[in-house]
Design a protein that fits this description.
103 residues, 37% strand, three-stranded mixed β-sheet, four-stranded mixed β-sheet
């Protein structure tokens, strides 16, 4: 399932505040409909609750709702933050491999 790093959760929580969405809202990852000539895009929306088939997780107090079509396309990817000088960008990366170590 698509997951968030703590940095991504913090950035999305800040974006939620800037968007004026209530603190209890979560972020929903879904795909836009693609036309025959372009690929689908990843949508992020701040919503009160998940859709019926969404997968649900929590990171840093932020609820994340993942639409089934996104989970199927991205699998075990992770959403992170990449910073370049003063600008931060959300990025989707493959999940790091599990080295099998236990703590």
């Amino acid at each position: 399932m698509l997951t968030l790093t703590p940095a991504a959760a913090a950035a999305l929580s800040a974006a939620r505040s800037q968007a004026g969405a209530p603190e209890g809202y979560g972020v929903r990852f879904s795909a836009s409909d693609a036309s025959p000539t372009e690929a689908a895009r990843l949508n992020l929306d701040f919503v009160e609750s998940p859709a019926p088939d969404d997968l649900v997780s929590e990171e840093g107090g932020l609820m994340a709702y993942v639409a089934p079509e996104v989970d199927g396309a991205l699998g075990d990817a992770v959403v992170d933050v990449e910073t370049d000088g003063q600008q931060s960008t959300l990025v989707v990366r493959p999940q790091p491999p599990d080295d099998g170590a236990t703590t």
